[in-house]
Amino acid sequence: MSIGQGRLSQFGHSLVANTVAFLRGGSPDKSEAVRRAEVVAVRPVVRGFSLGVGSYYILITVAHLFYEKGLALWVLDGLAALTMVACFFFFHHTRNTQRLEPLELTCLTLFSLMYLNVVTYQYFHVEPAKLVYFVLMILVFSTAGITPRVVVPCAVVCLVTMYGLAHKYGILSQYIWIGLAGVATALGMSVLLRQAILRAVHARVQADTLRDEAQALANCDVLTGLPNRRRFFDEMSHTLSMQKQDGVEFDLALIDLDGFKPVNDIYGHSVGDALLVAVAGRLRTLCAGRGFVARLGGDEFAIILTGVADDEALKGFGAHLCDVLKEPYMLSGVAANISASVGFVRSTGPFLTTSQYLERADYALYYAKQNLRGAPVIFSQKHETEMRDFGLIDQTLRSSDLERELFILFQPQYDVVENRTIGFEALARWNSPKLGLVRPDIFIRAAERSGLISQITLLLLRKALADVKSWPQDMRVSFNLSTRDLRSTTSIADICQTVRESGLDPKRIEFEITETAMLSDFEQACEALNRLKAMGCRIALDDFGSGYSSFSYIHRLPVNKIKIDRSFVVQLLKHQTAQKIIKTIIDLCKNLHLDCVIEGVETETELNKLRQVGARYIQGFLFSKPLTADGVDEYLSMEARQSQTGQHDTTGLFMARSVVS
């Protein structure tokens, strides 16, 4: 069979299939969502048809007054007026119809009235030339009829009537082919129109499904099933409104797990994730009917409590909470023991904002971890005074030689399609002579609280860009910006100046922002990012999925890249939903022409799962741990050697690069 014959045969099969589907009225097992969407799609067709026919019969009613007499006037004018009234009645009556059957009934009623008008006219005025009106009605019915149950019977009745009258007038031979041509045209128009409507309906349902998935992603923590950070902020806004309007009192608790990191490091992320799920389950049970529980990220949880009478009752609840979370966990044969510290802040004082409540609860939690680990602490006036003193980290930062103590490590971002590294993320590190190696999240938060972050950002950026100069020209560096960096026009101006002074092409520099940093002052953040983008720098949205995860603001940000948080990756082998969500985000990025980097990939199994959903850019320990500047040079040299020898085995790369790390 030739190619042309094959295509013709394929077209014929498609036409037959579409025609059969049309005559059957579509798939009988359509989902309720598809049915609702179909009603929404065809309702304007029916209402538009009603309005058009009603307007037409206004003219016909008036015309009959001039051209008809006697009984013909009364019958034809009355029938035309009835048709007109029915059209406008159904136009109004179907405006909010949610079911298909009333729309079908509307079409059948109006078609019947139009048919009666034409037949009655022929009864009073035998005009063989106007039998063609029946063919016109068939064409009109085929375009306005929304289902085969409407189109087919109306078309058959019109065709039979036309043939009957033509036979009576002795001109049947003249109208046989006209009728057949009209029916064939009508069937084709109906098939094409219905297929177009169904395609639009399915596209809309698919878009709604993606939107629902995105909404679920935006409000729910994928690992624990608890509300996530975005949902927590929404609930806090509602709670504060209730406080101001009705005087409703509440208590905010921040919970941090003590001993979680050793469990995670010793037994692996799978056990660590199972532990977080178990903790979430205990919190959900403990707070059932008493409060709102959310996971803010990592091993940090929040509770909004209502109905607690006094400080003693709140301490009692906190102590019970700590006892519940302290009970041993049996996780896949592993016995894990942790504790929890809790920081409370009460709403009995002056009205505060969400961020102010969080700041105070966070300080109470910090105090508990530093002084009463595994116990609850209620924020007090004493803590208010201490908080103004910034704390130990802030004091150490201010007295340190930051130029000497702060340094940068780099972690590769790998393209699994082209089998090459495309860039590195710059990671801030602080080795304090007094405190030792301080966790980045701790000293960055302290620096933000103290106002030192702008100074630290510029210092680290200069160091990172100096190291990048020795890299290949096609290699980019990603650098994280903080909330204060985005909110300060001076800081952004200094960052721009630092980029210009570095001599690097701005296209090689990518600034990463978190959802929290961006949403603290959205408009200012957009302005700051646009300034960086105008220089030629790239913008990445970091840790997507661990916090707000809202799709509603992505189109308003000048981002080039989205980084999916590891919390999704760790669920790939356990829940198929995680794989679907990752695919949804990847597809969204493709549609928006954004790069998508998957963070925290540590195993070949995870990588293979990600390949199946179209992931391309990967970052994680599978390829390399964070490297020093010298380690980057050795890393790139090793990659170049392997590229020359044609070796692109992922396991081989990891083994070789682990030595460099």
TrEMBL record:
Domain GGDEF: 248-381
InterPro entries: Biofilm_reg_signaling (IPR052155), EAL_dom (IPR001633), EAL_sf (IPR035919), GGDEF_dom (IPR000160), Nucleotide_cyclase (IPR029787), Rev_trsase/Diguanyl_cyclase (IPR043128)
EAL domain location: 390-640
Transmembrane segments: 45-67, 73-91, 103-124, 130-163, 175-193
Domain of life: Bacteria
Keyword annotations of the record: Membrane, Transmembrane, Transmembrane helix
Membrane as UniProt keyword: yes
Pfam families: EAL, GGDEF
PANTHER family assigned to the protein according to its UniProt record, in alphabetical order: BIOFILM ARCHITECTURE MAINTENANCE PROTEIN MBAA, DIGUANYLATE CYCLASE DGCP
Listed name of the protein: EAL domain-containing protein
